Amino acid sequence: MKKILSAFVVSSLVLLVTACNNAEEPQKKLTAGDLLDKSEQAMNSSLTSVSAHVVYDEYNGTVFDGDPEKTEKSGVNFDMNMDAFLDPMKVHRQVTVQPRGGEVWNMDIYDVGEQTVVADSREQGLRESETDPLKEAFGTLVSTTNPLVDLAKFKTFNDDFKLEEIGYDYVLKLSLDRDEFPRFKEIFPEVGPSEEGFLLIDRMEITIKINKKTSYVTGFNMYADMKIYSKGNSFKTRQKLNATYSYFNDIEDFTVPKEVTELVSR
User: Where is the signal peptide (predicted)?
Assistant: First the structure.
């Protein structure tokens, strides 16, 4: 009987000590910064290929002297499908552009290693490009979404992101007001009106979806709606970007056209 009691006491003490140790060492809570680092590491180390669909829509409206009848409107819609092999780099981007009030034009873009070749429907033949043609046409944010989301650009907002769990994904959400927006504008100068003046933000949100199992980014969204008032005029910009990523390490190979291969091998 004494042996049974002794064993019971020892077992109880072991459980008590374990519980105390667990209480003293609580599990670390996952932060937005941790998640961005983990995702960046996972994509750099194990992701070899990916498909993406990126849609970008921009509207600009300028009202002069506060008179709605004196309004100038402009904008563009951009739609891109991409297949990318990451090591060695071989990327094919098919882009359709619809300017507001203008004619549709297309780009076929091939990235082979560090070289980029563009077929633009507004031009004759192929041309090499020393910079990303999407960055030239649409700015840093669109360029940042492909072939992968450049997460490093968003780490300055580690403490501002809200982290949620939705289904199979972690979801990072960022909302910025007029005092916080200048930090974002420094990184992505094409977001929002280019004019200077009093800024009024109706909505400025970023959402990044990261798969719980793979830590790969599966989605990226931005919605920006704001106005600037300056010298009696108002400048409104509304920009929406939606990028989805799929077929991780499971896309079909594609052949780079002969004329592209010849151009990059010269």
Answer: 1-23
